[in-house]
Structures are given as C-alpha cells and as structure tokens.
Structure to design on (490 residues):
C-alpha cells in the first residue's frame, strides 16, 4: 500500500497521500515535509467524519469522491469501501487528470485489501 | 492582402467583445476577449483586459488565471535571466526584482522562496523581511489564515528591529493590528509611523479612526484565531454583502441555475439570507426552518474552510462531492456560499462553469460602487 502512495506522490504537484478510516484514524500516510503529519491527519480525519455525518443527515448515499479546492491547495478523497484515500495537492495541479491517477491508485489499494482479506 | 483582411477581422472581433464586455453582467465576455487576444498573440492587451475584467468581477477565478498566465508569458524572459543571475552571481537587487515579478504574476509563494534564498545567501535585510511580511499580510487579508499573519508579524518585527525608522513597516503593522481589532498595538505603530512622517495622510486617517476606539481585551493570537474562525467576519467579508437589487438578481440567477437540466436544487446562503430554488421557483428560507441541504450549505463550507486554513492550503473556494448518482457542488466567496445538488454526473462540469460565472456576477462591482464598499 505504501508503494501505491509513494507512486502517487511522485506525480508533480502532489504533496502527500494517506489512507484513513471513516472515523478519522490514519491507517498509513506518506506526506511531504511541508505538511505536518499530525496536523494534516487530525484535520483530514475531522473533515472526513463531519462530511460523512452531514451527508448521512441529508440522506445521501455514502461518499464516493470529494474534491476540495482551496486558494493554496486541493484535497481529493476517494472511497475505498472500508477506508478513504486522501490526496493533498498544490493549487496549480490539473485536477481532472490527477483524479484519474487517484482513481487508479484507489483501485489498486482496493485490490490489495481484497487479497489480504 | 489576406493578412490585412485577417487583421481587420481580428480588430473588429476584439472591438465587438470589448463593447459587449462592458454591458455583460457576467465575466464570460471578458474571458472570451482575453482568449481571443491571446490567440492573436496580443499578450499585453490580454493582460490589460483581464485586469479590466477583474476590476469589475473581482472574484472571477478564470480571469485571475488568465492574468497570471499572461503575466508569466510577458515576464518569462526577464524572470529566467534574473533566476540565472540569482543562481550564479546575483546581488540583493536581483533577488528583490525576481520576488517582485513573482508578486506581480500572482505567485506569492514563489516570491517567498526567492526571499528565503536571499536571506540564506546574503543574510537578513530589513527591506527583504518587510517584503516577505507584506506578502503574508496580503495573503492574510485574502484568505484569513491566522498563521500567515503570525509569520508576517514576526518578520515585520525583525525588520523593525533592524530598522526602526521604516514608516512603511510601522504603517503595515498598524493596519494589520487595526484589521484584527488589536487597537493598542495598532496605535503604538501608527504613533511611530507619524513620528517618522507626521503629515502622511493614510497614517493620519488611521490614527483618527483608532483614537476613538476601545482597547482590545484579548491577545493577538486570540484575535487572529477569531478572524480565522469567522467569529468576527470583518476583513474581506464586508466586500461581498449583497445589496437588495443584487439579491433580486441573485434570486433570478439561482432560478436559472435550478432550471438547468440535471439540477435538482440550488441554495444560496449569505449570512442570515438563505435562498432555495427548485422547480422554477425561488423562496427565502427562515433560519429556523429545517432543510437538510441548507444545513449542509451552512455547515460544510465552515468546516472545510477551517480545516483547509489550518492544514496550510489556504482559504476554501469550492468543492464537489459525488455520492452515488447525486452530486453536490459548493462555491464559497467571503460570506456567500452557493450549493447545487444535481443528478447528472456527465453534466457536472457544465453546471460547474455556470456556477462559477454566477458567483462572479453576483459579486461584481458596478461603476457607481466603490471598490471597498
């Protein structure tokens, strides 16, 4: 799984990626030096749990993908069924192209999960 | 002959778009004008038009992108030359020039890197420290990220330690502290600024404004945190309040968005105002009325905004959530949030483009309106 994240992080513009559980616990993370691991994990975990709670209250099906754009970066969250893949990028990245790479990484992580199950 | 004909046709097209842009209530025509000029190789004119468009539609992200692109093209040769000099035998002036070009090109992060490199090579200098502080203050005014202001204050203080006679540094510190409500600190710096330039209008105006204000009861860190959390929605938030006329216009626009194929509902939240459009009708919702989409529209951007600020990726701008066949799209500027719920994933990009244009048009500045209104 770490290899998949490392491969993802090798794409220009990606600052780091991690896998978290729906209740915000970090399973594995590969973040660049500019992102503080504890802070990033804490806020991402909080964001994931709150978003899922809001969607549930609004009677939405489970989250498949979330793309968040901020003035100095972007976050992409991809559902892995029992966990979530979270990718942090810079603000200049072409998100439509990167999302394809992230979806492919998510597919590989899902396959790894099935193999180990 | 053919090239002459082509040139006339190009000029006529540009002139037509320029006239239409001045009348259009959406930024789309300015975008078309800039793209046309870029395709004709008129990069400088494209930059001018993008700036003109931004003066009217200050929240248009596409116009900002075009301006950045045009500036980069215009300055690329000079930038490359300066970069080479900085790598080999560049002096302080080269570093400062390069940093200023990055600021002009709207890539402040790169300017900060250049200035850090300058400190490493030449040691700290008050003017470079002040420039770094100014970049961070500007970013704080735009994004309201507390850590930017904290870093900016630290850098400006170091600059003042080296040169206490800098009027610009004292005024910048006074303005920042005034904006977050730290009146005593703002007064300290404005006094120092007026000691250096007693008749400077901006400083006098700030002094007169501060003189009647109560002193703060909280420390700077607490005040900054409050601004970041949006407790005091001062700073940029005032710039985006909708007038009655614009509210009516927003209702119309929201109805049009909800009428788009694939859109189920459109919600606009701006402070106490909540507008909901669906099935060709738009209604205002009272704050205590329970509606799950409106609740999401109020709570998700607040949570996303705070998380993105504290993670160091700046202010929240937009988001797209896919949940089965349903898609939620969020757009946030200042206190205003637009949320669209749709069920046609293939049309999500088209709907997104309309939303971006709608938000920019809602917040346009008409000629009679002052820029800071």
């Amino acid at each position: 799984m770490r290899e998949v994240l490392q491969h993802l992080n090798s794409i220009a513009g990606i600052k780091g990626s991690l896998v978290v559980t729906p209740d915000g616990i970090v399973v594995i993370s590969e973040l660049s030096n500019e992102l503080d691991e504890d802070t990033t994990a804490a806020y991402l975990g909080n964001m994931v749990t709150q978003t899922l709670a809001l969607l549930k209250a609004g009677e939405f099906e489970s989250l498949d993908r979330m793309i968040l754009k901020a003035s100095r970066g972007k976050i992409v969250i991809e559902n892995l069924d029992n966990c979530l893949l979270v990718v942090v990028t810079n603000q200049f990245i072409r998100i439509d192209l990167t999302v394809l790479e992230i979806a492919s990484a998510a597919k590989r992580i899902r396959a790894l999960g099935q193999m180990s199950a | 002959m053919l090239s002459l004909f082509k040139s006339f046709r190009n000029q006529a097209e540009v002139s037509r778009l320029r006239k239409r842009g001045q009348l259009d209530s959406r930024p789309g025509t300015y975008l078309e004008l800039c793209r046309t000029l870029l395709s004709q190789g008129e990069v400088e004119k494209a930059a001018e038009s993008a700036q003109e468009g931004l003066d009217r539609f200050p929240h248009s992200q596409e116009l900002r992108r075009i301006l950045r692109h045009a500036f980069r093209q215009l300055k690329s040769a000079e930038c490359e030359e300066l970069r080479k000099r900085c790598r080999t035998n560049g002096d302080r002036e080269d570093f400062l020039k390069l940093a200023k070009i990055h600021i002009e090109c709207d890539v402040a992060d790169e300017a900060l890197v250049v200035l850090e490199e300058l400190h490493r090579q030449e040691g700290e200098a008050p003017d470079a420290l002040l420039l770094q502080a100014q970049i961070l203050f500007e970013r704080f005014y735009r994004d309201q990220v507390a850590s930017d202001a904290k870093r900016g204050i630290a850098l400006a203080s170091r600059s003042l330690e080296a040169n206490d006679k800098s009027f610009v540094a004292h005024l910048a510190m006074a303005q920042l502290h005034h904006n977050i409500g730290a009146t005593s600190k703002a007064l300290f710096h404005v006094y120092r600024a007026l000691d250096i330039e007693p008749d400077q209008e901006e400083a006098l105006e700030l002094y007169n404004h501060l003189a009647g204000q109560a002193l703060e009861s909280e420390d700077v860190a607490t005040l900054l945190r409050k601004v970041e959390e949006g407790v005091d929605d001062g700073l940029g938030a005032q710039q985006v309040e909708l007038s009655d006329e614009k509210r009516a216009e927003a209702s119309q626009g929201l109805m049009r968005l909800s009428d788009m194929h694939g859109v189920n509902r459109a919600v606009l939240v701006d402070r106490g105002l909540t507008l909901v459009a669906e099935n060709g009708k738009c209604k205002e919702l009272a704050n205590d009325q329970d509606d799950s989409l409106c609740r999401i529209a109020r709570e998700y951007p607040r949570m996303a905004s705070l998380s993105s600020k504290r993670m160091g990726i700046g202010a929240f701008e937009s988001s797209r959530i896919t949940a089965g066949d349903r898609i939620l799209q969020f757009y946030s500027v200042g206190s205003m949030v637009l949320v669209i719920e749709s069920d046609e994933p293939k049309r999500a990009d088209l709907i997104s483009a309309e939303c971006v244009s709608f938000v920019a048009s809602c917040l346009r500045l008409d000629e009679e309106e002052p820029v800071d209104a």
